[in-house]
Design brief:
The structure holds two protein chains of two kinds.
Chain A lengths: L1 H16 L5 H11 L6 H10 L6 H13 L5 E2 L4 E2 H36 L4 H15 L2 H16 L18 H38 L2 H8 L4 H7 L1 H5 L1 H16 L2 H7 L4 H10 L3 H29 L1 H10 L1
Antiparallel strand pairs in A: 1-2
Helix pairs in contact in A: 1-15, 5-6, 5-8, 5-12, 6-8, 7-8, 7-13, 12-15, 13-14, 14-15, 15-16
Chain B lengths: L1 H16 L8 H9 L5 H4 L5 E2 L11 E6 L6 H7 L4 E3 L5 E3 L4 E5 L3 E5 L14 H11 L22 E6 L2 E5 L7 H5 L11 H4 L9 H10 L5 H8 L16 E3 L7 E6 L5 E2 L11 E6 L5 H6 L5 E2 L8 H6 L1 H4 L1 E8 L6 E4 L6 H8 L1 H9 L3 H9 L4 E2 L13 H5 L6 H11 L19 E6 L4 H15 L4 E6 L2 H10 L4 E4 L27 H8 L11 H15 L3 H18 L3 E2 L1 E2 L2 E7 L2 E2 L6 E2 L16 E2 L9 H5 L6
Parallel strand pairs in B: 1-11, 2-12, 14-24, 17-18, 17-19
Antiparallel strand pairs in B: 3-4, 5-6, 6-8, 7-8, 9-10, 10-12, 13-22, 14-22, 15-19, 15-20, 16-21, 23-25
The chains are: A mainly alpha, B alpha+beta.
Chain lengths: 321, 643
């Protein structure tokens, strides 16, 4: 795990430094193109303060050294330590992502199981069609359409996760309600594609299992169809979902960046995109390393979970030793 | 400029005589009664500035605006536009925060502050605040490694600074310094004062080292200078603790997606009915992605919006005007040309280098652009056609400057190109360069907007008729600039000159090779900027002449002299066509809440001079709730919690 992380941090640092210039030159160019003169004295001051005149390897060592101590560096765009910038948005990202995952599971599971057990019935065809539509619709387009409709028919403010007047207010019931009123659009939009692919996977996995002989045997012995389904084939079909947890964790943190940008959600996705574009290197770099770290952890956790849930994996590993 | 000061003094004394009782602002009544805030006449300077307003308003209300990012908090300082001296809507310089200013020979500036003027935290604003900046900030090698700002160094020489008394300071140079006052009045101004009582707690000279070290540690900064710099953000406006003189002051600690600004209880301006300004109690910046801002504005989520709106949003905004209770006004934008082509006089390719330096070649390129077509096709015929130069609203305007070589004349352009020696063509009718390559011009741009590609598309068609092939190459801003600077780019397209509204007192630097940012001669500009350390000296007689004229302008004192030099510059600029203009004065949609008063119907939407809304002084904007009960009254009930 540790060599992986070191390699990842090296790659991230190199890629961020590949485009010409640094945050400050990008910032100066941006200001000048809008006719605004940058305070060159101040920028020069910051450049020397943050060691931009030093060789790259020194900057790298400095950055990684900070990471080890839990210091994620300094965001130039926000003029604040990275920890403070990220902290605020993480909660919103968690809320959006967990609701989305919940939505996906709640919708996809019953449909997936149903269409597998009723293969090629007309209900299966209809649900499959819906699934394909969900998979094929570009999520940013769906986001724009839903935003417009929600604004015109329900009077919900465009973009964001709550009515502007609740931002920075302490939590209260109206604030939570406003959040709920805004939350459903991103959840539906981000969830649609995920739901569709999950239905398909569950259906395919389950179909494989249902053909197997032990199912036929069990059925012949007169086991109740529901008990049969949930006790054996469904459990087998779940394996891919558990191994998915690994990729789920970083997804939860980064949020669905494109949709979040379109809908102007206060999540971490747009922030990461912005940081990459403006070459705010500590913000972008620390963020990416954090995500890589989560992926590694996630893969580890899902491996453990698989071993616990699926005796076959456990036993095979044992045999090899 | 001497007269300006005197005139204002007279105006002030007159108004001082007929003074009625000052009115307390409703939102402060409770605090004053409880003794938390002094009374209004103790908060205001002895001689407050009196605002000339179209209508007298009533105080109160909340102004919502949309911004694209956390860095946009600086727009509050731009819109607020409290400057030592500031431009009026007719672009004359007037004392603003200052009571008056005396100028001798264009080189000795005596600044008179208002007696009893206070910072937003109630501390006095005095000459000490000027001294603190000049001696302890600008001349401190750790805080200002590059020393005094350029506009305070005519010919590299700094001023003599004197504190005459509590409210008077003087800067004297041995040479005239015409850049000084315009820089004080700029949208992003030169701040020559600081809230010293606040910043001293972060300054090495005023605090014990051990105490300061603890503070540095706590705030996670590198050293005391970084800490001081972090706290001293008068323009960026992201430190809620920093005292200010602006009409609205930041109350939200970043990071946030919603920034609250509250009225400054010690603001120095009043209206004629003795209300302290600003009228509006709170300004709110909601941060949203810049691309979603037109949609949000159309949904009625902003009370005053122009930033991030473009002319092509106009129809959409107009359609939702009724439903969401706002009006869309159209103001003129200030650049000399919405988009201009810049042949790079420093291009590295030998053959092209010779060609772009040829006056006839540049004339031919300009003549072969159908500006009328561009205007009709992209701007609904509402823009002003012509070269990249000052606009009709500028006192320096002369129709010839704009129309020179701007008529669409393909046959004349073809004749000129034949004269240059480019008569040979290939099978497709494309002219051939002397070395046999076809004449293909790659126009690079920063890839920021589709507008550039649309305009280039039209130019491509008309240039094809003079045997030149045009290719558009969008890239990325930093990369684009780098390529232009290094001479790899043959031609670029970008915004025209920034200040199309120039007056004689404003600097003509944009018209002379003075900066690397100038896409027509980056290396010559760099040579000037670095005082000959990098770049190349200009070697085209007309460019040298422009540079010399700029030097003359810097040394000149009287307004007539400045105007004469300006006209010389503009004439050369018109003849030489260093940049090829298309159309200018493109309209900017301004969305204004239907109840918001005193926002002018017609205006100029310009960065500098103008500060966008700044010169129209938003402290005088107010909400008229007289006709119908306010729908947003329920919003005001929720208490604002400054963090």
């Amino acid at each position: 795990m540790i060599p992986t992380l070191i390699a990842i941090s090296l790659v991230i640092f190199t890629i961020i430094n590949l485009p010409p210039g640094d945050y400050f030159s990008t910032y100066i160019a941006e200001l000048q193109s809008s006719g605004e003169a940058a305070d060159l004295a101040k920028i020069h001051f910051l450049q020397t303060q943050y060691g931009f005149d030093r060789p790259l390897w020194e900057q790298y060592v400095f950055w990684v050294g900070g990471l080890l101590r839990g210091d994620m560096g300094y965001s130039f765009a926000y003029n604040l330590p990275v920890n403070q910038v990220v902290g605020d948005r993480l909660l919103m990202t968690f809320i959006v992502s967990f609701t989305t995952i919940l939505f996906t599971y709640i919708v996809a599971f019953p449909i997936g199981v149903y269409s597998a057990t009723h293969q090629y019935s007309w209900t299966d065809h209809v649900l499959t069609l819906l699934g394909f539509l969900g998979l094929a619709t570009p999520s940013f387009l769906l986001a724009l359409v839903l935003l417009y409709l929600a604004n015109v028919y329900f009077g919900i403010s465009i973009g964001g996760l709550m009515d502007p007047r609740y931002v920075n207010q302490p939590w209260s019931l109206p604030k939570a309600l406003s959040l709920a009123a805004h939350l459903w659009i991103p959840v539906v939009v981000i969830g649609t594609a995920g739901t569709a692919s999950m239905i398909r996977r569950l259906r395919a996995n389950l179909l494989d299992e249902l053909q197997k002989q032990y199912v036929v045997t069990a059925r012949a012995k007169g086991l109740h169809p529901f008990k049969l389904l949930f006790k054996y084939p469904l459990r087998m079909a779940l394996n891919p979902f558990i191994s998915d947890i690994g990729s789920l964790l970083p997804h939860v943190i980064s949020g669905a960046a494109i949709v979040s940008v379109v809908m102007s959600l206060p999540t971490t996705g747009p922030m990461l995109l912005d940081a990459l574009r403006s070459q705010d290197m500590y913000l972008a770099g620390s963020f990416l390393v954090f995500m890589a770290f989560l992926t590694v952890i996630g893969v580890f956790v899902s491996d453990l979970a698989l071993a616990i849930l699926d005796p076959r994996i456990r036993l095979q590993a044992g045999r090899r030793q | 400029m001497i007269q300006i000061g005197l005139a204002l003094v007279v105006a002030l004394t007159l108004s001082g005589v007929s003074r009625a009782e000052l009115q307390e602002t409703p939102i402060f009544e409770e605090d004053v009664a409880r003794g938390k805030l002094p009374k209004v006449d103790e908060r205001l300077p002895k001689e407050p500035a009196i605002a000339e307003l179209e209508t007298i308003g009533t105080p109160g209300g909340e102004l919502r605006m949309l911004m694209g990012g956390p860095k946009d908090t600086r727009m509050m300082v731009v819109y607020g536009y409290a400057r030592l001296v500031g431009y009026t809507p007719s672009l004359t310089l007037m004392p603003d925060i200052l009571k008056s200013i005396d100028v001798e020979d264009g080189r000795i500036f005596t600044l008179h502050l208002r007696n009893g003027h206070k910072w937003s935290d109630g501390h006095s604003f005095t000459s000490e605040d000027f001294r603190y900046w000049f001696e302890d900030v600008a001349q401190n090698t750790q805080l200002s490694p590059s020393g005094l700002p350029i506009s305070m160094l005519p010919q590299g020489e700094g001023p003599r600074f004197e504190v005459l008394d509590q409210t008077t300071v003087r800067y004297s140079w041995t040479r005239p310094n015409p850049l000084f006052l315009p820089d004080l009045a700029a949208a992003s101004p030169l701040y020559i004062y600081r809230p010293s009582h606040y910043l001293k707690q972060f300054h090495q000279k005023y605090v014990e080292k051990t105490k300061l070290d603890i503070l540095v540690k706590q705030t996670n900064q590198r050293n005391w200078a970084a800490l001081h710099n972090r706290m001293d953000t008068m323009y960026r406006d992201d430190n809620p603790d920093l005292p200010s003189l602006e009409p609205w002051i930041l109350r939200t600690k970043p990071p946030s997606d919603r920034f609250l600004f509250e009225r400054n209880p010690y603001y120095y301006r009043i209206d004629k009915a003795e209300h302290q300004l600003p009228y509006i109690d709170r300004v709110i910046f909601s941060i949203a992605d810049s691309k979603i801002i037109p949609a949000k504005t159309g949904a009625g989520e902003s009370d005053l919006q122009a930033r991030y709106l473009r002319f092509d949003n106009y129809t959409f905004l107009k359609a939702s005007e009724q439903r969401n209770g706002f009006k869309v006004k159209l103001w003129r934008t200030g650049p000399g040309s919405q988009l201009a082509l810049y042949p790079n006089l420093n291009v590295s390719d030998e053959i092209w280098h010779g060609l772009v330096r040829d006056l006839r070649f540049r004339h031919a390129l300009s003549l072969a652009i159908d500006r009328h077509e561009i205007n009709q096709a992209i701007y609904f015929g509402l823009a002003v056609e012509g070269q990249n130069t000052v606009l009709p609203q500028s006192p320096l305007y002369n129709p010839e400057y704009r129309s020179a070589w701007a008529k669409f004349d393909v046959s004349e352009a073809n004749r000129l190109l034949d004269l240059v020696g480019l008569a040979k063509r290939d099978g497709d009718g494309v002219r051939l360069l002397p070395d046999g390559r076809p004449m293909e011009i790659i126009v690079e741009n920063s890839g920021e907007s589709s507008e550039q590609s649309d305009v280039l598309e039209l130019i491509r068609d008309s240039w094809r008729r003079i045997g030149i092939r045009l290719f558009a190459k969008p890239s990325q801003l930093t990369l684009f600039r780098r390529r232009v600077f290094s001479g790899e780019t043959l031609m670029s397209i970008d915004k025209g000159i920034e200040n199309g509204l120039a007056t004689a007192a404003m600097s003509p630097a944009e018209f002379a090779p003075t900066s690397q940012q100038q896409l027509e001669w980056p290396k010559w500009g760099q040579y000037y900027e670095t005082k000959g350390m990098a770049g190349e000296p200009p070697n085209l007689p007309s460019a040298i002449q422009l540079k010399e004229l700029y030097g003359e302008w810097l040394a000149a004192v009287s307004e007539e002299e400045h105007a004469r030099i300006w006209h010389d510059i503009l004439r050369i600029w018109a003849d030489e066509v260093f940049s090829i203009g298309t159309v200018a004065g493109v309209l900017q949609p301004i969305v204004v809440n239907a109840k918001l008063r005193n926002v002018p119907e017609q205006g100029n939407y310009n960065w500098d001079p103008g500060a966008y809304f700044g010169i129209y002084k938003p402290d005088g904007f107010w909400f008229d709730h007289s006709e119908m009960p306010a729908k947003s009254a329920s919003l005001d009930a929720s208490p604002a919690t400054p963090q």
